[in-house]
Amino acid sequence: MMIVMKEGASPEQIDAVIARIESVGARAHPSRGELVTVIGAIGDREHVANLGLEGTEGVDHLVPILKPYKLASSQFKKGERTVLDVDGRRIGGPHFMTIAGPCTVESREQLLDTAHVVNDAGGQALRGGAYKPRTSPYSFQGLAEAGLRLLAEAKEETGLPIVTEVMDARDLDPVLEVADVIQLGARNMQNYTLLTELGRAGRPVLLKRGLSATLEELLMAAEYILKEGNEAVILCERGIRTFETAYRFTLDLMAVPVLKDLSHLPVVVDPSHAAGRRDLVGPLSLAAAAAGADGVIVETHPDPERAICDGPQAVRAEEFGDYLRQVEQVAAIAGKEMARV
Amino acid sequence: MMIVMKEGASPEQIDAVIARIESVGARAHPSRGELVTVIGAIGDREHVANLGLEGTEGVDHLVPILKPYKLASSQFKKGERTVLDVDGRRIGGPHFMTIAGPCTVESREQLLDTAHVVNDAGGQALRGGAYKPRTSPYSFQGLAEAGLRLLAEAKEETGLPIVTEVMDARDLDPVLEVADVIQLGARNMQNYTLLTELGRAGRPVLLKRGLSATLEELLMAAEYILKEGNEAVILCERGIRTFETAYRFTLDLMAVPVLKDLSHLPVVVDPSHAAGRRDLVGPLSLAAAAAGADGVIVETHPDPERAICDGPQAVRAEEFGDYLRQVEQVAAIAGKEMARV
Amino acid sequence: MMIVMKEGASPEQIDAVIARIESVGARAHPSRGELVTVIGAIGDREHVANLGLEGTEGVDHLVPILKPYKLASSQFKKGERTVLDVDGRRIGGPHFMTIAGPCTVESREQLLDTAHVVNDAGGQALRGGAYKPRTSPYSFQGLAEAGLRLLAEAKEETGLPIVTEVMDARDLDPVLEVADVIQLGARNMQNYTLLTELGRAGRPVLLKRGLSATLEELLMAAEYILKEGNEAVILCERGIRTFETAYRFTLDLMAVPVLKDLSHLPVVVDPSHAAGRRDLVGPLSLAAAAAGADGVIVETHPDPERAICDGPQAVRAEEFGDYLRQVEQVAAIAGKEMARV
Amino acid sequence: MMIVMKEGASPEQIDAVIARIESVGARAHPSRGELVTVIGAIGDREHVANLGLEGTEGVDHLVPILKPYKLASSQFKKGERTVLDVDGRRIGGPHFMTIAGPCTVESREQLLDTAHVVNDAGGQALRGGAYKPRTSPYSFQGLAEAGLRLLAEAKEETGLPIVTEVMDARDLDPVLEVADVIQLGARNMQNYTLLTELGRAGRPVLLKRGLSATLEELLMAAEYILKEGNEAVILCERGIRTFETAYRFTLDLMAVPVLKDLSHLPVVVDPSHAAGRRDLVGPLSLAAAAAGADGVIVETHPDPERAICDGPQAVRAEEFGDYLRQVEQVAAIAGKEMARV
User: Fold this and answer.
1) Strands A95-101 and A295-301
2) pTM for this entry
3) E-strand spans in chain B?
4) Which chain C residues are closer than 8 Å to B283 by Cβ?
5) Which end of chain D is more exposed for a tag (fewer CB within 10 A), N or C?
6) What pLDDT score does B12 carry?
């Protein structure tokens, strides 16, 4: 932590800050410039942060130097990348994974049809929501446990691992019976008690970036999971909120190379929810692969016009194979082998 | 819902949209302009929304006409404003309420000292967190049930009603034993299962706006609570995320008159968390009162330099009385009586 | 400037950075922590910035310590506040100034009527645009020089000083014949050649914050003017762009106390353009005064329904006197005398 | 334009709105729903917009239906894409153009070296700034006319067309002597008088999106140029401002397919200024090409460590050839031929 003093801070004020830093066992290291003095505080970050030095007389502002996440950082693995195994499929490092399926589990027929399309085209995992976070209390909230049972059936039929969302810690047990990867939605990215539970659940977690979360906050959310001993976290960029009204969210593809620089964890992109429109999903998926993503999580539906939820953004099942081939071509240029079994 | 067709949409495409609207029992009402046709869909909003018309051929975009919230809207109460009674203190309409206290319950002495300061100065409720949502898993997470017991003691000593946060539905029972108003934090604004539980808890809820939530989303979160039969919701503006780096969050005081126009619910402002700096809390509190807020929720501490959490933004206890008098003066110009018992 | 090295930067990399800092005559001051080394570079900011150290091997990131503006900073005037005299009216320090008038000069009658309303109510300056920056090339672009002549006439009739906008350096001469304060619009805040011309024009400048400008960028724009020897700059907060769609811009009233902390220059608020709606202008003006603004610049019109531009946000002329009295009452609580002659 | 009335608007209020619409020669077309009435106004957009109906009693809000730009819209060219010829090189439609060079023209040697690197690698145009918009008045502002002369020399030596920026209409004549494409910087995107001059200059314009401009505003800026008879506009996405602090700007690659849907104009991406870091430029360029961009404008420098401006983001000259080959490979998958002569 660097403490930047105000211009004109008095020697007494500087000494008082030094004394407070030393009072928690940290070392103070002042640099006196012509106009301002900067004091380095070397020692335990939390201790120094808890001093609340921002409010102290003569202090202008504080600059944190160390990153607040540890287990999620690239340094923690000394530059090695995490490769996860999801029921025999791999993601991370040279491995690219395509996770596809409907937004919501609607019916047996819809889910099984989609699962076959995904599997036949070479997709590596099946997504589908049984619990749906909805902005409106008047919207369809998902099939809940009945949906989970259909996911289990789809897995049995196709062998595809299942990615599905949990919204409430009280639903974790039934979800764990089905899910190979547990998805945590953007609106729950800072649901700290749920993060802690997922850290204890011993199952890979696909953690979606919050709608206005910084990358540091996303990595801190991952840190909640990692800290409990669960090392299997997949970071997911799914669009952030900006002033632009021409699309639902603004997909932030810079997040891909930057997260891969900051962290050893795999990074996937969800182009469907950002776009909200089918015609953008293809270009955005190619762009995600080109930017170095370790995978995409994308919506596809056999009959989007009749989908209960988010039909307009689903890739048509009959176009899914072509879509996937193009994505894989670009991922190969960006240095990926495909994760096909 | 208005469906705006693309320029050059064919008569067949227009007819197909009309047929789909009528298929769910709604009425279609086309306006044919020189360049584009707009089709009004009159009927159940959810039914029409579920048609997924955005993806249909010839459709450019959809414009919702009706607001998606009902119970939270001004129209629902025909312009009458909700006035809530919190243990004998009132908020809303002509009543202004000051809720004050420490960020976190730290110790018996700290809490009781603060409670007396608040009470003596004329504050109407005591805030204090026992469960603390923290960005870092390495930060202090609150005293939990021990903190709740201290809040109960502070209430007994001073008579001040208690405002405290719940983060997890599994903690709701002990919180309900103490809280007169349950606070739902910004990061949980779209924790839909928790909102539903609060709707059933029969206790006033202070609902903080999410860091990047629109006003419509805030009102939809309120709608989750109201829909379960709990009519006592207080909306809270606490700063939104912008590109500005000179402060933690950007307090959006336009939200105050606009929320009061859109909804009958009381609106309070939290200047402390937006600012993160004590010197801004005074001006922002006056500005909130001037903008027509129904109250403020503000942090004060007897010894901010030793606060475990957010000390730099706490109004010093010895300055709290002066602070409150000025806020009340401005609130009076903006048309408020004070809520003092 | 502090140079934060990466974790694991080698001693050679650290020495290379030190050598480069010293090569431009600055002093290097390294702090070696357990995980990272931070190097303070003490000397000319521009020289060090031009080293491009961000790209150097082993460097993680740079943290500027000194503020990039000098003449605009509070330190430059050692805490004293700038008070400007505009044709006998004062703004800044204890003085509050109300600048009011129509968005656009439309006609002789419209402008003179408004000028009398403003003057009779106690407003201190008349605003009105002769050159209008419009998003659409198909919209009315202002009366140009004919508008300037009407402003001159209004000044002669009422004695009110004139605040009017310049959009192009080539129009500066005719504007200088009329304007007591030259307004620079938000979209031109970083029009650097125009800023430089205004620095040489020897007339007070009302500088509007850009739609997504940070406070630092606003102060750097002021610095362009100050650097040319023009010390008379008024900063204006007029709303920033956010994701919120319920209003045109989000008025950032935190900017008021923060700008007054960072700079000695007067700060005014334009509530009209942010709101776009008359009913919000009152509450926002009161809030601006409460936050400590040195004035407001507000639109009023004798017949808003027939205004060519922005009628819906203009305070009705018949309500202007009441409006102004309330604003002045709040400004007084916030510590202002009124600037009435 | 649709006028949405408030719930509970009276028949008289509705009739008054209809009468005002008809008073400017437009047709009013009311849809009466159960809760609200919506009135379509069919006729000249500007006339109806100028009625200022937002302020009228009983009106809730207005919804524009037609896009405000005409000449820039896809409809204007009936779906055909604009292909521009820049001194024998083509951009748009199937043609991909790489524009590369230093941020700033610094010296004869630097510019000619870079020009040869770009030309030898197969780049199609040379970029380089002679006039530099700088946030700080204390930073290097460019070589001005001396820089233009060096650009002319580089063109003569290599045959590469020149892309260079103009900041002030008064510099347009000398710039026109050298530039094959005139660049308009992000901070000048809404400099309307300069846009109009460029519309009359008869030279292709590379128009950068403002830091917080919407796509609609970008297209309206293009409309200013097109309206004067200049049909040669290239749109450029260069990153928008968000809350994220890990990078300078957030490159918005969704803008690429969406602008290509809305408009017939070519779209290029500037990855360098958004990233500010060399290591991100490669992945972002690939992503831009994958998203369907018609080109990239990228910075390269023979000795980035000694660059006066933005060295850390410049691709090293010795890596430029490899960089370009990868970008072209991805562009080919996205459907482009290369624009090589």
Assistant:
1) parallel
2) 0.95
3) 2-5, 27-32, 37-42, 59-63, 84-86, 89-91, 95-101, 125-127, 162-165, 181-184, 205-208, 233-237, 267-269, 295-301, 315-316, 337-338
4) 256-257, 290-292, 334
5) C
6) 94
Asked if D43 and D188 sit in the same domain, the reply is no
Assess if residue C69 is contained within a domain. no
CB contacts < 8 A, A to B, total 113
Residue B45 counted as domain residue:
yes
A54: amino acid identity, one letter = E
pLDDT beyond 50 at B341: no
- Whether D49 shows a pLDDT value over 80: the answer reads no
Among the ranges given (A231-245, B183-197, C38-52, D83-97), the one the predictor scored with the smallest mean pLDDT:
C38-52
Contact C224 D190 (CB under 8 A): no
- Say if CB A231 and CB A257 are below 8 A apart: no
* Residue C341: per-residue pLDDT: 44
D17 and D152 housed in the same domain: no
How far is the C-alpha of C97 from the C-alpha of B267, rounded, in Å? 30
Q: Examine the domain organization and report whether A166 and A194 are in the same domain.
A: yes
Number of structural domains (chain D) is 2
**C200 in a structural domain:** yes
Q: CA separation (Å) from B169 to B161, C1, C151, C320, D181? A: 22, 48, 64, 51, 61
Residues B58 and B79 reside in one and the same domain: no
Query: Which of B63, B90, B106 represents a domain boundary (last residue)?
Result: B63
Q: What is the CATH number of the domain that holds A27?
A: 3.30.70.1140
User: What percent of chain C stands above pLDDT 90?
Assistant: 77
The ipTM, to two decimals, is: 0.94
CA distance D142 to D133: 9
Find the helix packing angle between A320-333 and D278-290, rounded to 10°: 150
Range of the domain at D92: 74-338
Domain holding D325: CATH number? 3.20.20.70
A131 and A38 in a common domain: no
Q: Which of D155, D302, D272, D125 is nearest to D208 (CA)?
A: D272
CB contact under 8 A, C29 and A34: no
Nearest CA in chain A to D328: A333
Mutate which: A31, A45, A54, A62, vs C, most C CBs within 10 A: A31
Q: Nearest CB to B220: which of A50, A135, A223?
A: A135
pLDDT at residue number C340: 53
What are the tens digits of pLDDT across the range A204-242? 999 999 999 999 999 999 999 999 999 999 999 999 999
Q: Give yes or no: residues A185 and A207 share one domain.
A: yes
Task: Name the closest residue on chain A to residue D280, using Cα atoms.
Answer: A257
Same domain, B271 and B236: yes
Looking at D43, D63, D83, the residue that finishes a domain is D63
- Percent residues over pLDDT 70 in chain A: 99
Q: Is residue C45 over pLDDT 80?
A: no
- Provide, rounded to the nearest whole percent, the portion of chain D with pLDDT above 90: 77
Whether residue A31 sits in one domain with residue A141: no
Q: How far is CA A228 from CA A91, A171, A201, B221, in A?
A: 22, 19, 9, 31
